[in-house]
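A quick aside before the break. I want you to see a complete sequence-to-structure record at least once, exactly as it would be stored in a machine-readable document. Don't worry about memorizing anything.
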Amino acid sequence: MSKRTEPVTLTNMCMIKRDHQILVLNRNDPAWPGLTFPGGHVEPHESFHDSVIREVKEETGLTIFSPKLVGVKQFYDQNQERYIVFFYIANKFTGQVKESN
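That is the input. The structure line, written in tokens, reads:
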């Protein structure tokens, strides 16, 4: 009988739009540098929806409302474990953008 479960890493990213502007982060991480959307890991027992709101707040200082799921990407990491990214878009938010690590 085949195994029906496997280790998986769950993450998210969110494109935050205002008119024709899109917020991106410039990562200084040597392992993964460059421009990206804010996001991060889904915590244990956290909903995907709540995780994207939390990650955007932690990384940008913005509180997003009604993020819309627009895509999913999956691949296998260096340990051959599944890695899933949930892609969201949000155009309603409050707060001031802040710099983060």
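Two observations worth writing down. The mean pLDDT is 93. Residues 8-94 form a domain with the Nucleoside Triphosphate Pyrophosphohydrolase fold (CATH 3.90.79.10). We'll return to this after the break.
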